Amino acid sequence: MQTVLWWIRRDLRLMDNQALATALARASHVLPVFILDPAILSSPRVGDKRVAFLLAGLRQLDADLRERGSRLVVRQGDPAQELAALVHETAAEAIFAEEDYTPYARRREARVAEALLLNLTGGLTVHPPEVVTKADGTPYTVFTPFSRAWKALPLPLATVVPPAPEWLPEPLEVASLPLPERPMLAATVPFPPGEAEAKRRLQAFLGGEDPAVYRYAEGRDRLDLAGTSLLSPYLRFGMLSARQAVLSAQMALEAAADIPAREGVQTWLNELIWREFFTSILAHFPEVSRQSFRPDLREIAWENDAETFSAWCQGKTGYPVVDAAMRQLVHTGWMHNRARMIVASFLVKDLLVDWRWGERYFMQHLVDGDPAANNGGWQWVAGTGTDAAPYFRVFNPVLQGRRYDPDGRFVRHWLPELTNVPDAYVHAPWEMPAEVQRQAQCLVGKDYPAPIVDHAWARERTLHAFSRARRECSRSSRRGA
């Protein structure tokens, strides 16, 4: 082929980019293209922080391309129409892209493939969803057997990973729009965009003489420690490939000197497999983006109180670990995974608010907001998903705070009004005697909210609502039979 288009979506990298490598092997000229899709950019599920991170990542990708003699061509509009126009302008013979698995992505790809020669490659996951299946070809809906099947497949070898090209064909003279000016928000500075930063973080976490990943198993749940990789935004936009992450984990595992170190790597690798599991669930069961996977929990009598939901969003529930995590989310666009479980449990199980409300709010704020992982995580906590925590598991926010933020450092960082509260009360300020409140300059109900709900009472309310939904579903099934 003379000319082809490399259609970039969630693969903002040059190394281990299967779509780019395949295009370069097939054609003399490869034109890198990104389409600013109004259907995505104007979606109520899209947040400013994630868009800012994406645009900054595209600028960095363009700089990387220009260093190699190429450039990024940007268009805006309906992808099928814009790609058709580019094919006409360039006489391109085909389009190469990394396959995506969200319902919208699949509809978009189908529309493009109707009129144009679209070649989809792997890359979003290590093993595509259609590969990790049962013997009869049906998908797994429980993580543990999925994980066993995933690990039984051949793991990637470094020799099959396409390196970043040293040089790219000179770009054709076609029009390109400037990327919108949406500077990185100050809140998202903890995540400098780009492939180089992703590589640096990967090396810092998994490389060196004493990799942080060796302590991951014991420190990953601590809110007050820097125990996680902070790579999720880079995996979300493909500034780092899943295959690169797994290869690096394999190398760290081989170099591990003892059992705790190996457990650290295996635990982190399991998190990567969870990411692939949730991608597989969304690919095989796209309806989970709209409803609970479990039919018996689709008709829960949610309270959906707007006032308590607003308090949750603003970090004003009166439960410090919940409020600190929500303020971290709004300020930085990121939240610790343990904190995500705690705040999700509180919204669904303490406030009896539909998990979809929380899922959407997360997507509006998370820099790493991924449709599959976010949906899977929320349904896991709610107990409505495929491989879910039992619906009767309700996290106690006070106990969770004391266990994973024992000295209250995380809470005090995000809730300065609790700075002087003694450790004994920092996760339950309402238990402070009046004199202690005055000494700590933190009057509950004035300087910091009183709890908006009683946890013990809320737990019983939720168990009743979930049990009732299951009973009614069972009765309906019997009547239908």
Main attributes?
481 residues; mainly alpha; Rossmann fold; Serine Threonine Protein Phosphatase 5, Tetratricopeptide repeat; DNA Cyclobutane Dipyrimidine Photolyase, subunit A, domain 3; 3 domains; 20 helices
Question: From the coordinates shown, what is the CATH architecture of the largest domain?
Answer: Orthogonal Bundle
Please report the number of helical segments.
20
Strand order in space, largest sheet: 3-2-1-4-5
Mean pLDDT: 94
CA distance, first residue to last residue: 58 Å
For this structure, the quaternary state is: single chain
Order of helices and strands: EHEHHEHEHEHHHHHHHHHHHHHHH
Task: Give a description of the structure.
This protein is mainly alpha-helical and about 475 residues long. The radius of gyration is 24 Å and the shape is globular. The chain has 20 helices and five strands. Helix 4 packs parallel to helix 5 and helix 10 packs antiparallel against helix 11. About 45% of the residues are buried. Helix 1 links the parallel strand 1 and strand 2. The mean pLDDT is about 95. It has three domains: about 120 residues, HUPs (Rossmann fold, 3-Layer(aba) Sandwich); about 130 residues, Serine Threonine Protein Phosphatase 5, Tetratricopeptide repeat, CATH 1.25.40; about 180 residues, DNA Cyclobutane Dipyrimidine Photolyase, subunit A, domain 3. A five-stranded parallel sheet has the order 3-2-1-4-5, sandwiched between helices.
